[in-house]
Amino acid sequence: MLAAVQRNGSGIAAIAVEELDEVAAGMGGTLIEGAYAPVMPWDIKAGEGTIGGRRLPSVIGYALSGTVIGAGPLGLRNAVGRRVISLVPEGSNAQRGVAPLAPFVFTVPDNVGMAQAASVIGGGDAALMLSKVPELNPGDRVVVSGANGGVGTWLVQILDLMGVRTDILSSSRSLGGNAELFPGKHVTDDPAQLASHAYAAGFDLTGEGSVLRILESQLKSGGTLVMAATPDHRASRNDIKAVFRNRPIGPKGYNWLLARLADASITAVIDSIYPLREVREAQWHVKRDPHKGRTLLRLNDNAEP
To answer: What domain of life (predicted)?
Structure first.
């Protein structure tokens, strides 16, 4: 099977698309024919050696959408033919992958496309987790930075469902894209245009120190700065909280996200789709280009939309 392998920690240049031996379901695994895999900033950072967690060389990625084509004796043998999304810890940027944990294989509703479903893991799940950090009530006002990415596009829509009023702090180069993504919302690249000291929470998805300081300055007393990428940051004000959160949401949360796609109350925003052989180009796009939503890899040429 074809797979994208991170050979060493030298970054995108060290990715090789190779023919590997077919994977097997094993005793408790579920074998999935891949459709799409999200291109994650986490994968890029792991390939550069800036974060740990995976021994190299290894197949890139940890999530995909696809169709169950087999299972071990303790796997999901009754799910053959089912459209699913799944965690694939041993690498998902491949034509086939094995889901070792049956509770984290989720059925995709019939009216949800496989590309949209592929953005749930690493996108929708992170957004749902972050949305639960502050205690928010309908009518509360929040500000989000990094809203145009694979997590942010989900987060803003989840906050809308909560009845929260969301403003967008954008970079200058993403200002036009954010305005297109979020018509009717207050979108600005000028901190002076934010509602000073009016926000119950600020959500930072950029990890940039200058942005964190701006968000802190805009929070009302008792507000919460929610951080997705800066675990060591400490609040500069005594009257606010700064919280880094990175926790799993559990099966109930994943099924809720898929149900929101099915009832069209949330739309998964897909920036672009690259074939598996162009994984390097896909990662470069995520790393350096303005984008709107999640970038995906098409794992098999015959993958349904």
So the answer is: Bacteria
